[in-house]
Amino acid sequence: MSTIVPHYRSVQALLQSQSFSIDEYQREYKWGKENVEELLSDLQAKFFSSFKHGDGTPQVSGYAEYFLGSIIVSKRNGKNYLIDGQQRVTSLTLLLIHLYRLATNQKLPVVQTVAPLIFSDNLGQPKFNLDIPERLPVIKALFEGAAFNPAGDDESIQTMYARYQDIAGNDLFDELADRQALPHFIYWLMTRVGLIEISTENDNYAYAIFETMNDRGKPLSPVDMLKAYLLAPIEDTETRKKANATWKSEVLELISWGGTHEPERDANCIKAWLRAQYAETIRDRKAGATDKDWELIGTAFHRWVRDHSDQLTLGKADTNAALMTTSFPFFAKAYQRILEAGRQYTPGLAAVYYNAHNDFTWQSTVLLAPLVETDDSDTVRRKLAVTATYLDIWLMRRAVNYIRVGYSSVSYAMFLLCRDIRRKSVPELVDILRDKLAKDDATLSGSPTKGRSGLDGLALNQWSRRYIFHLLARLTAATEAGAGRTDSFDKLVDRNVKNPFDIEHIWPADFKLSSGFQSEQEYDEWRNHVASLVLLPQDVNRSLQDKLYAEKRGHYAKQNFYAASLDDGPYQHQPKFQQFATARQLPFKAYTNFTKAEQLERRELIAKLADLVWSPDKLEEAAA
Prior knowledge:
Elements: E1 4-10, H1 11-15, E2 20-21, H2 33-48, E3 66-76, E4 79-84, H3 86-105, H4 111-114, E5 119-122, E6 125-128, H5 136-144, H6 155-168, H7 172-178, H8 182-192, E7 193-200, H9 203-214, H10 222-231, H11 237-255, H12 265-278, H13 293-307, H14 317-343, H15 350-357, H16 363-368, H17 377-399, H18 411-421, H19 426-439, H20 465-482, H21 489-492, E8 501-505, H22 520-527, E9 533-537, H23 538-544, H24 549-556, H25 561-564, H26 569-573, H27 575-583, H28 596-613, H29 618-623
Parallel strand pairs: 2-4, 3-7
Antiparallel strand pairs: 1-7, 3-4, 5-6, 8-9
Helix pairs in contact: 2-6, 3-5, 3-6, 10-13, 11-14, 12-13, 12-14, 14-15, 15-17, 17-19, 20-28
């Protein structure tokens, strides 16, 4: 009889010089950005609850542990097959690859310890420990820091590449660098983070375990446990039946929203709702600090609700039933409305779409904060629009100043924001948010406390590319709409069409083709500045790459107004464009040549156009 053996393994013990495969019929790697951000946020919080400046790496052995859950492994034909746990092991591998690259670049000794967790020596050839043949090219490219284009590859490869970019851009690594804690974190992850490995040599046993854990004997989810707690005091049969049916119906709508089955969507909705409406405290940012409302709702909201029943006025049949049949349906539907507006460009809720395009994962939580169960549909729309508009302005002010707005770095700010706007009327909401913008240190012109210069210092690099693409699309769409054409933002940012828009450099790539610059470095700085960029369809962009401005100018004239404004055409044949520029006092201007002087004038145009697009007056417009 085959044995079933559970073992607690540290990350190092689990991955050290052994590989894992999956069967062909296993589902794809599907973790989203939010999953990765939550994992990194949890790791970050747990690590920094122990780390103190001045600690040596040996002191990591006394740091708090973190449990990653369990995996199920079937051992056959000399291989370890992951029956359950592919999502975590893949994400963990991507994190280790990024840590390996950081440690390699900094020449840290720990790199020699990390490497065997990613690949092992197989008769002189590296064998990656995530041994899934079709995914090896992306793992190899990421490990080696080589260029990789996932376009056309299967879903798992595209998702792995996208999640690696999310990991690399996460604020955790800035904090580790600022606090000189990178080697400590790597040792901690390897030795103090662990999981349960349940292994057997019999596939049937492995799948029986999997089915028991995920079907017949599946532990109740936090959503199930919350429902059980809420139903407990409701003794009236009809009331209990109605509450249970309402809850089940809302959960089903959530997990099947948008035509895709997402079993965590109900929990994500409840976390957002409870944080937005009820969280009063948040963990202090210091070693030894304990989790408070904001964090506890994120990790065990069912337990938090039970422990805060007095604050929530729960524990009695009538109040519990009201929460299940009134509050939960109201916020679940509002949550779905936010998701829909984030996926589909919706008039009146465009700012929700903008924030979703910027991958701002706190949006749903913050947008639920001002809502009240008695709000009608139009009031809900107006509150969502006003709050999303504020977030849009707040986000772009930070993006142009190179201030990170990732999940962990803005968690505290979003907690405070939710508390300040909680259950406010539309007029109150507008006043509060306008006041916050007026007092904000970061503006489109700069951030004095951080020594940033805003749009004037904004240039294309690996971090800023996505925000510059968004900014150019917004400026382009605003110019199109102002000149009488249809608002085209969603078309400009759609990457799934045959010929998507790309960023076009007005100056050619070859430094030798230009004059007026002292060095290639100076040329690149000017060439990559946001004022030297426009958006063009991909085929046009590629055809113009090596041409001089004089050769490109005529092609620009056939494109969107923002690009075409560099040529004479719009000023001669487009009266609505001219009216828009005059009415808004926008210094659009055609240029025969494009030198430093012209680029500086273009900066003035961008500043004025951006002030129009991200004006605080948009709050009142959204409230209308």
